[in-house]
Amino acid sequence: MEKLIITAAICGAEVTKEHNPNVPYTVEEIAREAKSAYDAGASIIHLHVREDDGTPTQDKNRFKECIDAIRKVCPDVIIQPSTGGAVGMTDMERLQSTEVEEESLKHPEMATLDCGTCNFGGDEIFINTDNTIKTFGKTMMERGVKPEIEVFDKGMVDIAIRMNKKGYIASPMHFDFVLGVQMSASVRDLVFISESIPHGSTWTVAGIGRHEIPMAAAAIVMGGHVRVGFEDNIYIEKGVVAKSNGELVEKVVRIAKELGREIATPAEARQILGLKPFLNK
Predict the structure, then answer these.
(1) How far is residue 99's CA from residue 102's CA, in Å, rounded to a whole number?
(2) The 3-state secondary structure of 206-255, one letter per residue
(3) Is the dihedral of CA 260, 194, 230, 71 positive or negative?
């Protein structure tokens, strides 16, 4: 079985310090949380950025500040900017995160690509039309950015496959199954959706809230990969807020060790995902 890739979604766009005071907003806090996750065993940092007051932003200069700060303390980690942004942002606002240049990278190695519209609750609708998906896919291909295809239900897998056949998403594809929002977070559904992707694809699961660790454990056994972090869940156990993203990563590492699954380094994760070797100057 492949080694386990752990992604840490360290802050998201919606969770706040009122939910958990350890949620990072500032550049320094972002770097701190990235390092805590990296030191614990995460090889990918899934990155949203905030203004210092916690307001979500897709400003490419803010992304560059945060990426540079993370790179100083986690030299070889895979940094995966989000193109999700926040509800109401335009396509071009959301794509700013893929414009960031590092010293040794023209563009980020990876970024997220949401393959469908999602109901987030109440009146909040996260809109991703077919034309949006085409624009994002084409832009990422032009910039050499590997998309992590975010899917919230089985229909989004089908959209991704259709976009792949039309040439907007390259093979092999990598999926992130976000379960517990629109599609239920159960082993039955994880088996169903993971068996729906093309042969040769890779996948990660992100269970939301109380589903985070049960879905992680299932993925470890099934040969998939795992995402944890404050974006998806702020608790280390029922009623106890996590002190850091690293604490959540450590929990997954302990489970993986008990189940006999080794943890991938960033270099090994790049090989599994088909990314180029990283040369940090």
Answers:
(1) 10
(2) EECHHHHHHHHHHHHHHCCEEEECCCCCCEEECCEECCCHHHHHHHHHHH
(3) positive
Distance of CA 239 to the CA centre of its chain: 25
Query: Is a pLDDT exceeding 90 seen at residue 45?
Result: yes
Six-digit token pair at 116? 């469908």
Q: Are 98 and 140 in contact (CB under 8 A)?
A: yes
Domains, the chain: 6-273 (3.20.20.70)
Beta strand 6-9 with 44-47 is: parallel
- The pLDDT value recorded for residue 88 is 75
3 state DSSP class of 263? strand
Which residue(s) pair with 204 in the sheet? 176, 225
56 CB contacts (<8 Å, ≥6 apart)?
13, 14, 48, 49, 50, 85, 86
pLDDT grade for 219, boundaries at 50, 70 and 90: very high
- C-alpha distances (whole Å) from 121 to each of 25, 87, 124, 125, 253 are 24, 12, 6, 8, 32
